[in-house]
Amino acid sequence: xxxxxxxxxxxxxxxxxxxxxxxxxxxxxxxxxxxxxxxxxxxxxxxxxxxxxxxxxxxxxxxxxxxxxxxxxxxxxxxxxxxxxxxxxxxxxxxxxxxxxxxxxxxxxxxxxxxxxxxxxxxxxxxxxxxxxxxxxxxxxxxxxxxxxxxxxxxxxxxxxxxxxxxxxxxxxxxxxxxxxxxxxxxxxxxxxxxxxxxxxxxxxxxxxxxxxxxxxxxxxxxxxxxxxxxxxxxxxxxxxxxxxxxxxxxxxxxxxxxxxxxxxxxxxxxxxxxxxxxxxxxxxxxxxxxxxxxxxxxxxxxxxxxxxxxxxxxxxxxxxxxxxxxxxxxxxxxxxxxxxxxxxxxxxxxxxxxxxxxxxxxxxxxxxxxxxxxxxxxxxxxxxxxxxxxxxxxxxxxxxxxxxxxxxxxxxxxxxxxxxxxxxxxxxxxxxxxxxxxxxxxxxxxxxxxxxxxx
Length: 456
Hints:
By secondary structure, the protein is α+β, with helices and mostly antiparallel strands. The chain has 14 helices and twelve strands.
């Protein structure tokens, strides 16, 4: 500071420029990196070197300029509203060169006028970009002295560097604050999300445990049901076999003559025993299919022969209701790999079902055809048809699309469920197409070869 004080009032010569710049850096470091501290430190350094002169630093603000700070009664010395002053300021901003502004002073500051003639406006610019102005009270002689002006212009460029640095720091600080706020917000959000996920995982674990318990209960119940069906079916079949045998003996009059009325009653009993035996067989088949214990005796077989057998075997039942039962199949239909007895059961179940639900005088068509690597078997009837919601459930066990109709037609509602299970075991697919009041077509696809993939 002693060197600065020694140079008060003197011109900036030789190494003095370096000393001024060094003093500026020290002032900047002491006061802070913001634009007000930089401007204030700059004016203090200038006044320390050049005496108590009026001075000011402006910054560019849109199309105009804005005062940052001032020293030495600048408001009395310089009127911002004076058009001539505005012209000088703007000219310095546009040209980027130092401009001398001759000031008309009021009587209040005549003592200052005796020392200075006006203001020197020095650009504060970074390269060619003028960021503001540094105004300093000077004499005309000083404004024309390059040895006096040049250090001031160097100081202006240094102020521009400092202000740029200040703005960069402010932007970085603002960016850091924004990023910090975003990180904190994201961290908070992630923390809340993590807490929700942990709570959800706990809920899912509890639900999973409950589901496991429920599955175990259902598995046990299903196993118990299968065992019950198997035991009951076996226990019922034995006495039914004996009952059917003795009824046959009575009907054949091996135990003695019977009257026509007795024959009629015994015939009804024999039919009921036969139907009950079929229901028991169906229950056993369903139980075996669901438990995976139904064994297929696979081999090469002819679906045409199966269709012929079904047509011949059920022709009488169709004729009893005056139903036309027609077969559309050729002996050239390729053979497949399957269990002929079980496939016969599938066709018989579907055709029997069609006969049950087709009114007297109706029609049933049985057909078989090739479909690429599959054979398609279709049974079309002119029965009451099925609504869309009924079609989704018609292959379920014990399902009754129309309870009154099913009961009058007879059956336990197991035939189609058994048919679906057997077709699936052959790698095929069973389906129904129907419209309420317009009959139904039940069909199934069976692969021609053993290695053929399951129907899509």
